[in-house]
Amino acid sequence: MGSLIYLLSGIIFSVGLGLAGMLQPSKVIGFLNPLGEAGWDPSLAFVMAGAIGVHLVLYKLTLRREKPVCADEFGIPAQTDVNKRLLFGSAIFGAGWGIAGYCPGPGLASLSSGAEGAITFVAAMILGMGMFHFALQAWNRSQI
Amino acid sequence: MEIVNFTPMSSIFGGALIGLSASMMLFFHGRIAGISGIVGGGLVLPKGDMSWRVIFVAGLVIGGFLVAMVAPNLIGDAVTPAGATVLAGVLVGFGTRMGNGCTSGHGICGLSRLSSRSLFAVLSFMAVGFGTASILHGVMGGF
Questions:
Q1: Considering only alpha carbons, which residue of chain A is nearest residue B22?
Q2: If DSSP codes are grouped into helix, strand and coil, which group holds residue A110?
Q3: pTM for the whole thing?
């Protein structure tokens, strides 16, 4: 059953992205560019509201359990510090998001439509993730 | 400012489905549904920690396929030329790994558990996202 949950979660996530309008880069840009001549599309704020509204409640209820159904413990991130890496990393992500209107989920979910843009984006995103991985390794080595 | 293309009902319903997906991951597997972490963490091919990532991403792709079949107008192609899309992808990949999360991990999961770390991440990527899009697609008139 465990694998089925992962598959279903992925499918529901993508269908949600589609209904939400997030698989249309033009709509994402329409949200992030409120001062454009074309006007502003506030829909994406409602995506966040819907997602957080549901998850906030179900998260609280779920954590009343001792452990998840199919695992021994909850893997909630323990890190709490707000540091430069978090802020600069998120800023770099924001710049990429603002250029093309794709974030990681929508890029992957749009792959099967055969849209050239999504395929190009995902390939470049994986390259960027790899670049960070090697940059971090080089940085860690230089600190020893 | 004129409000255009506004789809509050379908966006809030789509958002609710995303929240449901994140809740399923937590309830059954105790995991955070952060897409950049799931993909980025899999790139080093971690032993014994790989298959669930592949299955979840397969689900994402299948879900996108269903959307493309049933409502093809819900999937749009890039609005940027290939060079700009590549730059965007590299920045998104690098930045989400550096900042340990994206719109899903920090934006939905992090904010739902009232993490101040995620709040600052969201403020950072939203501010720069709005700024970048407004300059490129607004002030400069797009591509």
A1: A55
A2: coil
A3: 0.96
